[in-house]
């Protein structure tokens, strides 16, 4: 028997309709732990560099993590892996909710989809009974509506469903996979699902999830719960209210959005409104939020309440989490009422709340400067909100200009031409980013934006504060109970970091310290993604209950595989390096490793070069950002080095 | 008849506070696993949440008595504009549904308030419910002492005599009285 994990994957070939239950190799658990780690290994082994995202040979993997479904609070993440139609690189996206634990209760760690179905189908996993079912009657249905319809026809309200909406069916490059209160939105994985003719995956399970050292494991779980309570009683002062506690930014519970609305940019990530947040706005937004918010809700086995059920009058009920309440609001220069209304439609259509509003705001900018004309948008309303609804409908149907915008800002700009490329200013590696424009370069954030393989700042940042507290005394106070640091030196880096002067951005943290800080933060995300742990209890908030000191104990007690701190660290390094290798094999190189071009006003080309050189070296990459033969050998990834040599990647890289 | 004091354990379920996280199901099934905590499986839990997010229904229900027969009707309740099925509130392990039955054997499950020696401060589900939807309390009640009633003894002895004959019962009683 296997512990922690189940030890079996489901292989579903949609072209032939075949379904197999396949035992997995325990050695891969030792090497990659699970989740994103083992999925990356499958992607490396089975999806060649030449595979088009919309080829039947592309895989779509729904994975639980190593700890998912065990008693560890917050271990509920579903990690979805495929090749992204937008970036053409390995897509990273992940969702909370209830899907991954249910999949393990049903007796599987992953579902691996290959091929393509000619007719629209959905997969029904009921313990050992697994079948592909006709979904023609669900065609065009919203993601939430389709999930409800499936629960109804299978007559069980506890079935967990992950589904796409119209956007996924129409292969919108930023289509999401929706699952009740959560969604896997980034990288256009919903488009791959739609391309495969897969409307939904429905799961129900009633088997055991076992752990190897039950008493020790429960002690660890109890200590995490205690710490969560402690952190609830000890918010971190000096950071915005939504970031003071644990979990996702608490935007469903808290109304105060001064930080986002005055620091982040509006429109097509252009305008900063430093004076936006007034007592009047706060009062109005409070009313808007409390009017529609029915209840704060949780993911599987988690005491946090990061999501909410939202009921806008005359629209169906839906569920929301954190920042998506602001993305449409801010892109359209509108208010929270509009944000809640349009998000309901966007959730049903199944599109990413980061990318979609930016693609729309980008189109409106092109219209303003005359690159697009009224002929491109026939029948579009005059008002800004009306225009957003108009563009949403066009995009999810790929009608007219919507067909261009559905590929995302990068590809749309190139297809439209006439100088539209200049308006694509907030993407990295062809993928839309958070709307944020700042003054002085931050060396830590420079490295994270440039090199993060998940192409999303929130999936790499977290453990080190975004900026120094104003005084040394405050910083000394902060580090006092900072037990999460992997090494005491990080406390010194933070205490010495000043808001102004010599010991401040961009030259402090030093190049060396910046490399170490980024590596720590990134590593924690990779561990979470292997274990299926919510970043909101681990890699994302300051001072979380899970960290590098207790994770090895969790892994060991869950699996019975003795893993030390170094082993867990090395496993995360291995997965991170393998993801880089996958992308290098698909053509990624140093020239792609850069932040959005106007992210900072003050840039330092020489320092940036130093940072990137040093970071590559630190990570075991050569100066082109390619993992070296030596570092691959060290990580037991010799098979990668062999293929790189065969393909001549080192010589012409 | 003598009065004795008895501890009555109860859990108040504040359904308005439930967020549907199912931590109670996880810890209940882990606690009752053999060996303890070695596995978890919501299907073995003695508490289940009726969770219908789009209708804003979150209702923790505890496993109660086993019953051989199902109800004759299926009524529904409307509370605060939300429609509940009668079964949503029912604690029984019964033939009409799969709830509160061991998934392997089909044997009925019943909440034991985490009976344990020494006693737990509170049942595990309450401890793990950070939403405070489950609130544990104990109260003392005076109840009449449980004494065997004469009629019961007579009934039992009568059955023994019918089966084994008076002499054999008398001999046995005499022998036991000496022992």
Set down the secondary structure blueprint:
The complex is a heterodimer of chains A (653) and B (179).
Chain A (H helix, E strand, L loop, with lengths): L7 E6 L4 E6 L2 H7 L3 H11 L13 E4 L14 E6 L6 E6 L3 H7 L4 E5 L6 E6 L2 E6 L8 H12 L5 E4 L2 H4 L7 E3 L2 E3 L4 H7 L2 E7 L4 E2 L3 H20 L24 H6 L1 E2 L4 E2 L6 H14 E5 L9 E4 L7 E4 L2 H8 L4 H14 L5 H15 L14 H14 L3 H5 L2 H9 L10 E2 L2 E2 L5 E3 L2 H9 L20 H9 L8 H8 L14 H21 L19 H9 L5 H21 L14 E3 L2 H15 L9 H6 L3 H10 L1 H4 L1
Parallel strand pairs in A: 1-6, 7-12, 21-22
Antiparallel strand pairs in A: 1-2, 3-4, 3-6, 4-5, 7-8, 9-12, 10-11, 14-15, 16-17, 17-18, 19-20
Helix pairs in contact in A: 1-2, 2-21, 7-20, 10-11, 11-13, 12-13, 16-19, 17-18, 19-21, 19-22
Chain B lengths: L2 E11 L9 H9 L7 E2 L6 E6 L4 E6 L13 E4 L2 E4 H4 L34 H5 L5 E11 L5 H15 L1 H13 L1
Antiparallel strand pairs in B: 1-7, 3-4, 5-6
Structure description:
The complex is a heterodimer of chains A (653) and B (179). Chain A has 25 helices and 22 strands. Chain A is an alpha+beta fold and 653 residues long. Chain A has three domains: 8-204, 4-Layer Sandwich (Aldehyde Ferredoxin Oxidoreductase,  A, domain 1), CATH 3.60.9; 243-424, Aldehyde Ferredoxin Oxidoreductase Protein, subunit A, domain 2 (Orthogonal Bundle), CATH 1.10.569.10; 438-652, Aldehyde Ferredoxin Oxidoreductase Protein, subunit A, domain 3. Chain A has a six-stranded mixed sheet. The longest helix of chain A is centred in the C-terminal third of the chain and has 21 residues, at 511-531. Chain A is globular. By secondary structure, chain B is an alpha+beta fold. Helix content of chain B is 26%, strand content 25%. In chain B, α4 packs across α5 (166-178). The mean pLDDT of chain B is 92. The A-B interface holds A 69-71, 73, 98, 105, 144, 148, 157-158, 180-181, 205-211, 214-215, 217-218, 225, 228-229, 294-303, 305, 309, 316-317, 319 and B 19-23, 26-27, 30, 33, 35-44, 50-56, 58, 103, 128, 130-131. β13 of chain A pairs antiparallel with β2 of chain B.
